[in-house]
Structure formats: structure tokens, C-alpha cells
What does this fold into?
Amino acid sequence: MNARIMTVAGLAFLLVPAAGAQRKISGTENCHQPEIVSATNAGDMEGHILAVQKNTCTWTTGMEMEGAKAKDGSGVEFVEIWPTRASSDGTYVGNMDNGDKFFVSYHGSVTLKDGAPTGPVHGTWSYTGGTGKLKGITGKGTFTATPNPDGSSEIDVEGDYTIPPPAAPKAATPKP
It folds into this structure.
């Protein structure tokens, strides 16, 4: 009997690293033209603008995590624009089709010519948390945002994530 318990315990310990293993993800979302919440000239040079904007997105190819797919989300970002480049730092809240959420911090940049992007926005992102099955999520990746003429953008995302294994149950304290 002790050998059977040790075998089961050994198998359980072998499965714990798999539960916390790093998993690859990718997906594509379409984001509407951002809503500019506030913008002002920085005052130090012509064309240096600071802005806060919000956007909403729908996943056209949802990232799959823990048996669910990303369906939509929204972001708020701080954007700094110079005559030849722009950068953004923001927070994105994603919604999964099972009701779970994930939270992301991101940074992107693009080269500008005559106030317009010369190509796609390239950036990096990392998870800052999640709910439900995504609680404790960690991971990071990259994105490429291709602007469309109507102000919307198509964003390709790839990266990896890890979910921590469930906490082991506490051993019962024997009663005296």
C-alpha cells in the first residue's frame, strides 16, 4: 500500500511542472479608431503632443488560453507624439468567452512622416493579472498593429503564458 501511495504522489509531483508550463499563444484583433480623451501640445517644440486615448477591440482570431478564447477588450493609453515618431504605453483588459479576464501592460512605437505612420506599430506586452482560470497568469510577447485608412487597426499578437499550478491542499492536523 505504501508503494501505491508513493507512486500516486510521485505522479502528482511530475504533473505539477506541466500545469505551470509555458504555453505559446497567438491571435488577431481589430481595434476601432481610438477615442481621444485628452490631448495637448507639450510646449517645448512644434508637433510634440501628449495625449490619452481609449480604444475597443474585437478578436477576429481569439487567443486560446485554458480552454477559452479571447473575444473582445478595451485599452487606455498614454501617447507621446513627436514630428518623426510616436510611442504609447497602456493597459488592456481582455475578455474571454467564458467570462474570465486578463490584464496586459504594453508599449509600442512607430515612425512618422508628415504626421502619418510609415508602417506598422511594433511593441511588447506582458500580463499583469487575470481572473477565473487566468488568475495569477504571467507571460509576455510582441505585437504588430497595422493601421487602416479609416483609423482602425489590425493587431497581430504572439507570446507565451504560464498559469501557476493550484496550491497543494494543506495537510490536516491530527487531533490529539
Confidence is low (pLDDT under 50) at residues 1-19. The chain has one helix and eleven strands. The chain has one domain: 31-162.
